[in-house]
Amino acid sequence: MAKTLLPSASLRGDDHPHEECALFGVFGHAKAAETTFYGLYALQHRGQESSGIAVGDGKELRCHRGMGLVAEVFDRDVLAQLPGQVAVGHNRYSTYGSVGVANAQPLIVNCREGTIAVAHNGNLVNAGELRHRMESEGSIFQSNSDTEVVLHLAARSRRSGIVEMLADALSQIRGAASLLFATADRLIAYRDPHGFRPLALGRVGGATLVASETCAFDLLDATFVRDIRPGELLVVGPEGEKSVQLANEPRVHQCIFEHIYFARPDSKVFGENVDRARRRCGKQLAREHPVVADIVISVPDSSNTAAMGYARVSGVRYEIGLIRNHYIGRTFIDPEPGMRSFGVRVKFNPVVGVLRARRVVVVDDSIVRGTTMRKLVRLIRSAGASEVHLRIASPPVAWPCFYGIDTPAREELLAARMPVAAMRESLGVDSLGYLSLDGLRACVEDPQNYCTSCFDGDYPVDPFGEHEQEARRRAAFAPAPETA
Prior knowledge:
By secondary structure, the chain is an alpha+beta fold. Helix content is about 30%, strand content about 25%.
């Protein structure tokens, strides 16, 4: 009998790091729940495991959460049960905590000052330490998400008023935290002092919007105003807006992978157009690693613009050589034994007429383990490509991330286990070229404000608290075995 399963990395057909989460908030809109639904729909690429919306009507908060995509969790009947003018919404891809509805967000807590809902994008590196301390003092947690730690800290604060309690809680956390809070009558946004994850402010009519990416504003005909500043706590309520700078001297380390892979190319992230940054990466990659070839193709969709940039500088024609299936559902029927590379084929199909007897440059944005790329190269060769030259529009990912990206332990990262020459042989390509770290930095504005720890191992925040397991530390930082 056929069985169903949640898609594994191979069935997703990718070999990329995974974030992440999407945040969307609104204040002052008569249809806050519906507006948030559309905002989350535009941000579906940032998380596909669960979705949720909490709405305040001035007196109370109501929340609906569920496993699945936005359109699977919400319909008109559900949205009609969420009246109010303030809302926060969340799409989740888990980086801390298990997969399950208990960890779906927004999370809600009742405290002495009222009810608070929270949605979080990022990862708190001291969550284990804080949780251990609070549990030893009697706190009871309902989930194993690091986000719940923030709510417990706020509820335990001795300060008066929701905003002061949240400020107290936020002063105790370390790591990546873009956060949206909702009370019955207020929307509150916060971005950690390093600004690891994006968070943007917008307007539509008389309503205030906050979102992980500006593409959510475009769908709603909203206007982008500015980014929430690193270390800023923005409170939007009936009395207007109030901005409080919790960190007077923020040390900015924005995630450079937002430009490489995570954000949609039509978004503006960290004050810069994503499409423009990716094209620069492709152009720089062509300068650093030219090759004699007939066509340039991308691994759709995240590397499309980088491939166009590569083609522009190299003079090699850009073609569509892989067709992506955008309609993969949440369940699959197991393939019959012997169906090789099923996980890649279910997502990508080669255009034989484009690839046959051609020397092909394949541009992708990153490689993590290399397992999917290896299968994809075989697929391209099976379509008749005479040569396959792989170009990666980022440096080698050789270190795990602890700031909201789901990357494996270092020993599982291909670039940590072997040099480029060995990677070329392992992947089965005729040549392999990565964008240099200096080249990547030259492709973004204000490169000193970006975190590149996944490439160079330079972590701006110590990723381990005193109660984290030593085995985890060793797995992350021990030198990976080299393969000759």
